[in-house]
Amino acid sequence: MRMKPSRNLLLGLCSMLALGFLYYSSGRISLQGWGHKSLYDKQGFLLKLDGSLPLELIYKYGNLSEGACKPGFAAAKMTAIYPKFTKLAPMFLDSNYKRFSKIGDHSPPFGVKSQEKIIDILLSATKSYGLGEELDSMSCKTCVVVGNGGILANKSLGHRIDQFDVVVRLNEAPVKGFEKDVGSKTTMRITYPEGAIQKTERYETQSLFVLSAFKALDLKWLRHMVFNQRLRSTDGFWKSVARHVPREPSDMRILNPYFIQEASFKLIGLPYNSGQMGRGNIPTLGAVAITMALHNCDEVAVAGFGYNMSTPHAPLHYYERIRMSAIKESWTHNISKEKEFLVKLVKAGVIQDWTNGICGAGC
């Protein structure tokens, strides 16, 4: 006599079938313990980066004329390879900066904790918190971050760089005398006290002076610059600093420290170190500027990025004779991990690298 399956057995089989259907139809049940391979790396970036556009982006940007600015393009491509990306952080601190809890929980360089009083004083003096009326009103902005690398020399990219709506320069890298290769336009110069131009005649006639504060002392230094006060002591700085910045307070800004925090802990994956500056957990200013651009620009390009240690006699910077071999092991930066991050952006087409120095022939 054939035995009929029990009711409990049938219910169990149905449950297993239902779970199997959910797994294969939605793919949302993680079975890593059963050999499932993740599509993302430990930072949350898509492992397969081939530069191709997702179907929804092809539909969105496919009909634009060649050369037209693509609204939201950089953020859309970034989100496609890094789903945790959210476009929420303005370039500079403004009078409502305390609404961002992520920077309120950390001291410089990753936030503003314990520095609110001096920041409020600085913001009340500068009174301006954007790029300027014309740029702020644009519905689509193209941006280029110009690095200081020797790879820029003899590339004749100056005219192309000047075509961007926003040209970002870093530290004391000069423009005068190098216009053919680096352009003549400067929208903003991001720096810190030790990296700022010290000879006032070398400043552009018009540009925003943007402080990236890596320590509390940097904000005190900026207060002297904003109020044109004499800097009596340079104790606490690791080298000489600028003593005067030829800019009106309305042309000075404080870079949102969220970009240092995001670049370090989320995008590059540097050590958290209890949220304090420590060995190998500070991104370079170039990586910070690129992170800022991804949040605030519709299209992003870079030029003058990439160290090639296999060519020790190549020029380190485009404006001086120091060689690549002069690079020493940095206490604060992790160049190799940072390069991994930048290579992802180039491979996926999130940013365009005009000097091809980030990954060379490897992209």
UniProtKB/TrEMBL annotation:
An MF annotation (GO) of this entry: N-acetyllactosaminide alpha-2,3-sialyltransferase activity
Pathway: Protein modification; protein glycosylation
InterPro entries documented for this protein: Glyco_trans_29 (IPR001675), Glycosyltransferase_29 (IPR051142), GT29-like_sf (IPR038578), Sialyl_trans (IPR012163)
Signal peptide positions on this chain: none
GO cellular component: Golgi cisterna membrane; Golgi membrane
Enzyme class: transferase
Topology in membrane: Single-pass type II membrane protein
Family: Belongs to the glycosyltransferase 29 family.
Listed name of the protein: CMP-N-acetylneuraminate-beta-1,4-galactoside alpha-2,3-sialyltransferase
UniProt entry tagged with the keyword Membrane: yes
Keyword Secreted set for record: no
One Pfam family here: Glyco_transf_29
General function of this protein: Catalyzes the formation of the NeuAc-alpha-2,3-Gal-beta-1,4-GlcNAc-, NeuAc-alpha-2,3-Gal-beta-1,3-GlcNAc- and NeuAc-alpha-2,3-Gal-beta-1,3-GalNAc- sequences found in terminal carbohydrate groups of glycoproteins and glycolipids. The highest activity is toward Gal-beta-1,3-GlcNAc and the lowest toward Gal-beta-1,3-GalNAc.
The reaction(s) this protein catalyses: a beta-D-galactosyl-(1->4)-N-acetyl-beta-D-glucosaminyl derivative + CMP-N-acetyl-beta-neuraminate = an N-acetyl-alpha-neuraminyl-(2->3)-beta-D-galactosyl-(1->4)-N-acetyl-beta-D-glucosaminyl derivative + CMP + H(+)
Keywords of this entry: Disulfide bond, Glycoprotein, Glycosyltransferase, Golgi apparatus, Membrane, Signal-anchor, Transferase, Transmembrane, Transmembrane helix
Location (main, coarse): Golgi
Superkingdom field: Eukaryota
Subcellular location per the Swiss-Prot or TrEMBL entry: Golgi apparatus membrane; Golgi apparatus, Golgi stack membrane
Catalytic activity, EC: 2.4.3.6
Disulfide bonds: C143-C297
